[in-house]
């Protein structure tokens, strides 16, 4: 995996319009994504090297032969480069070790500099000699000194990416109060606004602990049946109203 670079696998050449797709779970991503397997015949559970926007990454086949898309749509997908070999696995182990070291170092520096931010995860991209630090914060954070100290210790490029709490939940994954895996980390492709009015229209108790997800924001599922409730409210009698039945 170390031998591959973005120059070797440019994005323009790493995408295609395939006959069928397979689902692959790439590290640091909560849900599987679709890739073009090309001529490879891959079984579920196979460890592979795939092209991504950040260069080659390791992943595991989660599902195979998905063909629910139109080939003439012009949509393209990143390719599976090859089945991972022993060298790839060893390189991944070294990468994980570096990420753990970088994360611990960053946590120490955040405390030392008393920065109002929470470190979410760390991703090292060896092909670019770069480490990306994902974090959440209530507002803007001046992390210039943090970057200087991280770069001096790690000896490679440092990139800080602020993400929202919803994006963090999507990336990490988890389970909601319903007992199912989080919608955002399984099937939701984008976030849409969720308002307290949706909870009111559905007659839900406005208790934050009951209508908030693991991210601390209003649950995405409040919008799923909202339009149905709005339509029914127009014709159904209000609570306490007297009605006549046949």
How is the secondary structure organized here?
Layout (H helix, E strand, L loop, with lengths): L10 H4 E2 L4 E6 L6 E3 L11 E6 L2 E12 L10 E2 L1 E4 L2 H28 L4 E8 L4 E7 L7 H11 L2 E6 L2 H8 L23 H6 L6 H4 L14 H10 L11
Strand order in the sheet with the most strands:
3-2-5-4-7
Helix content: 25-40%
Helix count from the secondary structure assignment: 7
What is the arithmetic mean of pLDDT?
A: 85
Structural class: alpha+beta
Q: What profile does the largest beta sheet have?
A: 5 strands, antiparallel
Rg, Cα atoms, Å: 23 Å
Q: N- to C-terminal separation?
A: 74 Å
Which word captures the global form?
A: flat
Q: Proportion of β residues?
A: 15-25%
Q: Secondary-structure element sequence?
A: HEEEEEEEHEEHEHHHH
Low-confidence stretches: 2-13
Task: Give the beta-strand count.
Answer: 10
Give the number of domains. Answer: 3
Keywords, please?
single chain; 246 residues; alpha+beta; GMP Synthetase, Chain A, domain 3; 3 domains; five-stranded antiparallel β-sheet; three-stranded mixed β-sheet; 7 helices; 23% strand; flat; disordered N terminus
Q: Can you tell me about this structure?
A:
The protein is α+β, with helices and mostly antiparallel strands and 246 residues long. The chain folds into 3 domains: 11-84, no CATH class; 91-163, 2-Layer Sandwich (GMP Synthetase, Chain A, domain 3); 175-235, no CATH class. The chain has helices at residues 11-14, 86-113, 144-154, 165-172, 196-201, 208-211, 226-235, and strands at residues 15-16, 21-26, 33-35, 47-52, 55-66, 77-78, 80-83, 118-125, 130-136, 157-162. A hairpin with a 4-residue loop joins strand 8 and strand 9 (130-136). It starts with 10 loop residues before the first helix and ends in an 11-residue tail after the last helix.
């Amino acid at each position: 995996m170390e031998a591959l670079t973005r120059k070797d696998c440019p994005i323009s050449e790493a995408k295609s319009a395939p006959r069928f797709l397979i689902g692959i779970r790439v590290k640091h991503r909560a849900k599987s994504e679709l890739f073009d397997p090309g001529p490879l015949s891959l079984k579920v559970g196979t460890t592979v090297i795939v092209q991504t926007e950040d260069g080659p990454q390791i992943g595991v086949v989660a599902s195979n032969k998905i063909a629910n898309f139109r080939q003439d749509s012009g949509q393209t997908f990143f390719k599976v480069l090859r089945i991972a070999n022993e060298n790839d696995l060893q390189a991944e182990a070294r990468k994980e070790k570096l990420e753990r070291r970088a994360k611990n170092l960053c946590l120490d520096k955040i405390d030392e500099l008393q920065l109002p931010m929470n470190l979410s995860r760390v991703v090292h991209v060896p092909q670019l000699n770069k480490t990306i630090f994902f974090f959440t914060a209530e507002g803007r954070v001046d992390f210039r000194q943090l970057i200087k100290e991280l770069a001096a210790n790690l000896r490679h490029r440092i990139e800080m990416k602020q993400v929202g709490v919803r994006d963090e939940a999507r990336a990490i994954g988890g389970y909601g109060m319903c007992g199912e895996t989080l919608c955002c980390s399984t099937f939701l492709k984008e976030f849409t606004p969720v308002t307290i009015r949706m909870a009111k229209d559905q007659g839900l108790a406005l208790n934050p602990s009951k209508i908030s997800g693991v991210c601390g924001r209003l649950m995405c599922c409040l919008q799923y049946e909202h339009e149905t409730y709005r339509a029914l409210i127009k014709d159904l009698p209000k609570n306490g109203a007297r009605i006549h039945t046949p």
